[in-house]
Amino acid sequence: MKRRDFLKHCSVAASGLVLVNVLPSYAHAMLKEGNLPLNKSLFEIFSNPENHYRPFVRWWWNGDKIEKSELARELRILKDAGIGGVEINPISFPSRTDDMNKPSVDWMSDEWIELLKFTLEEAKSLGMTCDLLVGTGFPMGGDFLKKEECSQIVVIAVKKLKGPLTTEFSLFDLYKEADPAITSPYSGRTMEMMEVKLVPDPLNSMDEVMNLSDQIKNGMIKVSIPKGDYAIYGLVKIQRFMSVIQGAPGGMGPVLNHYDTEAVKKYLNRMSDGIQQKIGPLAPNVRSFFVDSLETEGTNWSNDMMSEFKRRRGYDLYPYLPFVLFKIGGMGNTTGQNILYPVKSGPEFKKMIDRMRYDFELTKAEIFEERFVHTFVQWCKDNKIKSRAQAYGRGYFPLEGSFDIDIPECETWLKYGIGEDISEEKFTQYPWHLGRGNTMINKLVSSAAHLKDKKLISSEELTNTDMVFNESLEIFKIAGDQSTISGVTHPIFHGFNYSPPEAAFPGWITYGGYFNEKNTMWPYFKHYTDYRARLSAVLQQASMFADIALLAPFADQWSEYGAQMEPFPVMVSPAYQALIWESIHQNGNACDYVSERVINDSEVKKGFLTYGKRKYHTLFLIEVHSLDTATASKLHDFVSSGGRIFCIEATPDRSTGWNNYEKRDREVRDWVTKMQAYPDRFIFLKKPASDFLGWYKTVQEKYNIKPYVKIQSPKTFVTQVRYQTDKADLFLFNNSSSKHNAPLDITFEKEVIRHKRAWLWDAATGKRFRLELPEGRLHIDLGPADSKLIVFDHDRKGIVWKDSPLTGNNSTELNNTWDVEFRHYDGTIKKEELNKLADLKELPAYANFAGTVVYRNRFQSGDKSTINYLNLGSVYGICEVRINGVEAGTQWFGRRIYPLEGLIREGMNDIEIKVVTVMVNYMKTLKDNVVAQYWTNQKKKDQPLQSMGLAGPVTIY
């Protein structure tokens, strides 16, 4: 390089460094050189992650009872715990809680805006990132909305009658029947009777329906019913039907109409203008505006809904609307999906109504996307702030809803059963959460992000309403790893409560997760935040690999059952749907969900379905009966060019929707017939009676679906995901069992390992170790709750990895008497000798213990070189070990095996083991503490006693 060019490059590099130093932490990631932030290697990003990669927390401003000193104190507590940012989330004050007469600060008041400004400045001084909730509670709304700006719903009331009968009843009776049993009704809702119809039971034709609307007089209706079974149908429109769930003062009241563009714009601009006119631009001190759960309770109406429907679908739905709708219950879920509530109908009439129902669901989803999602995204852009949203709910596109969002978000929950063995039969009965932290929506949201080449995918994570005060770092890890496998690259923990230290124990708790400095696990929390930060940092530099696509039968589900409430669907059709993508990953392949829109917008190139940077050689149709004709045509192009389609349990046989359906049905069947001319590429598969894991492995081998990593003996609790950068391939293997070891014999495909070196990157410590892989083969033993990140890159030098064996030569159990010190959470200390180690919940005197247990013992060593490892056996809690007064380390999940090199001396050795327990067993005993009892002892929250302490056996070898 010439001297002049060298000096020019140095000058540019130096000016770049100055620029980096003045940007907020999260903005650094925008400066790229290739795939990586300037001047850092992939491993440097991983080993020492910057703040914006660290987990964030949802920071509940409980009742907006906020003060500057406490806001500053809590930010520092979070920073010290390894939290990189906060989502400012004003919410109602928790019930059952003493507010100490602290006043609420109204949302959007001058005082609230000044406190927001203070918070943003404090966070910036700490290098922390801030996101800001739109509105308060969820979904957004407020008392300041005009009636026409509020959400609306059209519902049905059905009263069954037997004729002959002449009767009279009031519209009030129908209003009572129609009033939906939603979670958060608004007291000021108003009802309007749109139509009343007399319907025979069963119903076979619209000609049999009699409109009684002209017989309504003075709020009463008189009907004469012929002989037979009949029903009165009332079609009722309710305005301002729902209230903001857990809104804070200033943001309480009716919910916004998300189907009204002007109302949405007005709401959003009121917030941004109201803040920025007082304190200046929120960018860059606010990273993103956040839209929380779209639990809009089944909202389905705008003033132009029927005219829009006719324009889009080509026919008038209104006469059929009462038969399209179901009865609405909590969270907007349908409660009338059986023949008991509405009248029965003949097969042809039902077929017509099902098709119309799909058209209605499709129209609502389109309008929501256009009028709310696009409006929200544009508002964020106008304010130079990113959009972040959980863009799903009941009746919204579960995939496309996230396409335009800068930071798409999904959900991962804590539930009893995570880490345990769950049978497939039980899973199909409770398909959206059983045994898994990640919800049904996670894989869809992450797939949407991958299709749009987005690498930052967040999750409302560790949401906890069942396991409160049972927060263990190990279960955090199991659920969090499941979240990562489903495609998440950044967790937002749910959540950290604004709670002054003087608040009565256990503090102000809006939801269950006890993320609080008073939690026994809090001093160790940074072990977990460090772990997640390292994974987030490296995965956000890479793209998740997938070459298989899945199409779920959403059109069929919307037709028959109506759109479901994601991520908690009442109906999953088919129930085994998630087992398909899980089995694919468990067998060394990877997949994305796609939609008909994605398929239609894809290009077919040399046997691949190509959408942006995604390329799929194989597509699984999961019990798909209904397809749009354009989709069927594109699938034929795919198959005829060399692509492959597997039809599980059904072959598409009809079109979607009602208008002109007979012609379109023939077109779909014609395209399917043409695809069947390629029997090696258009293949029908029966679903298995059980063992989806083994079933997919058989399909994989029979049809030569080449895995990028061959897993010799796959297991349902072990799965993997692959990411790629320009220079590296990354594989994360995860054991989601809290009980089982998982010895793995895996072989990586040659294309992965060619000219690259294999490494194990330890996300718990930030260290890396070289792996020797003869012919690409790796033998590795995943312990319970364990995970391994295997990286192939071009680095060469490093320490060779050495696993800690479960046992070895000269194994000796420390089975003599233990001196045990019980340091109870309540401040008391008790000392005792234990002749035998045991789970504390099995010892009546300590079954309700919480705190730290210190176990002390001694052992003799003749030759210190013969003692290399300490295995603690079963440990329930976080453990610290000291040998001869020297720290051997802290371990917080899985197997507790400690290398002892340099710690053992000849002669007598002292060992001290500290175990920190969860709190729940103690909290159950606090009978006078209303908050503790609510979360641990009441009805569905009645928590079982948890295992605690050191159960052993403790061995040295």
Q: What report would you give on this structure?
A:
With 957 residues, the chain is an alpha/beta fold. The chain has 5 domains: 208 residues, no CATH class; 169 residues, no CATH class; 164 residues, Rossmann fold; 86 residues, Golgi alpha-mannosidase II (Immunoglobulin-like), CATH 2.60.40; 145 residues, Galactose-binding domain-like (Jelly Rolls, Sandwich). It has 22 helices and 44 strands. The strands form 10 sheets. An 8-stranded parallel beta barrel has the order 3-4-5-11-12-13-14-15, surrounded by 6 helices. The longest helix is centred in the middle third of the chain and has 36 residues.
List the helices and strands and how they pair.
Blueprint: H1 3-22, E1 32-33, E2 36-37, H2 42-47, E3 56-62, H3 68-80, E4 85-91, H4 110-125, E5 129-133, E6 152-170, H5 171-178, E7 190-200, E8 210-211, E9 216-217, E10 220-239, H6 261-279, E11 288-291, H7 305-313, H8 321-324, H9 347-382, E12 386-389, E13 407-414, H10 424-429, H11 441-451, E14 458-464, H12 473-485, E15 490-497, H13 525-539, E16 543-544, E17 548-551, H14 554-561, H15 577-586, E18 591-594, H16 596-600, E19 603-605, E20 608-611, E21 614-616, E22 618-622, H17 629-640, E23 644-648, H18 661-675, E24 682-685, H19 692-702, E25 709-711, E26 718-724, E27 729-735, E28 742-748, H20 750-753, E29 757-762, E30 767-771, E31 777-782, E32 787-793, E33 812-813, E34 818-824, E35 829-834, E36 851-861, E37 869-871, E38 874-876, E39 878-883, E40 886-891, E41 897-899, E42 907-916, H21 920-923, H22 930-937, E43 949-952, E44 955-956
Parallel strand pairs: 3-4, 3-15, 4-5, 5-11, 11-12, 12-13, 13-14, 14-15, 17-18, 17-22, 22-23, 23-24
Antiparallel strand pairs: 1-2, 6-10, 7-8, 7-10, 9-10, 16-26, 19-20, 20-21, 25-28, 26-27, 27-32, 28-31, 29-30, 29-32, 33-44, 34-35, 34-36, 36-42, 37-41, 37-44, 38-43, 39-40, 39-42
Helix pairs in contact: 3-4, 6-9, 7-9, 9-14, 12-13, 15-19, 17-18
